[in-house]
Design goal:
By secondary structure, the chain is of the alpha+beta class. It has 3 helices and 5 strands. Helix 1 packs antiparallel against helix 2. The two termini are about 60 Å apart.
């Protein structure tokens, strides 16, 4: 059916049935928009909906993102031997994420998590990049320890508490 014929049909319905008046006006507006090549209103509604959804998703991520408990960053260009530590509090059942990356040109690097008594809770594997998790058995103060010997290179370790 051609656009003018459709408009005439709508006008006839509008004259015969007053309840269709609002619907007929809406359809006429949509036909005129289509004739002008514009779905601008529809595109604006879609864009606005996507924007609202992205804002909502960002808000949810921001609320539930893992809390950073601490980090160690170290770089050396000459052989170095030392121990870097950070402490963090944890409760029994907390899920802790350890994110690690390194570039080791020389020497050794050992990374462990210990409880307050010095008992090793988690030993990180040697790798260039690693993400691993540990669930804490006790409410305690824990220590992340990076022990490096004759070390040349860099490393970064971040400790997160998962929500």
């Amino acid at each position: 059916m051609e656009v003018p014929q459709l408009q005439n049909s709508i006008r006839m319905c509008n004259e015969n049935r007053t309840g269709l008046h609002a619907s007929a006006d809406w359809i006429t507006i949509r036909i005129n928009m289509a004739r002008e090549g514009g779905n601008g209103v529809k595109k604006n509604h879609i864009a606005m909906g996507l924007l609202v959804m992205m804002a909502f998703a960002t808000g949810i991520w921001w609320y539930f993102r893992p809390a950073v408990l601490g980090n160690i960053n170290h770089a050396s260009t000459e052989p170095e031997t030392s121990v870097s530590t950070i402490s963090f509090s944890g409760e029994a059942g907390d899920r802790i994420k350890l994110s690690f990356q390194s570039t080791i040109e020389n020497g050794n690097l050992d990374i462990v998590v210990c409880d307050a008594k010095g008992t090793v809770v988690k030993e990180l594997d040697r790798a260039k990049r690693l993400e691993t998790f540990v669930t804490l058995d006790d409410t305690d103060t824990y220590t992340l320890e990076a022990d490096y010997r004759d070390f040349i290179g860099n490393f970064q370790i971040t400790v997160y508490k998962e929500s």
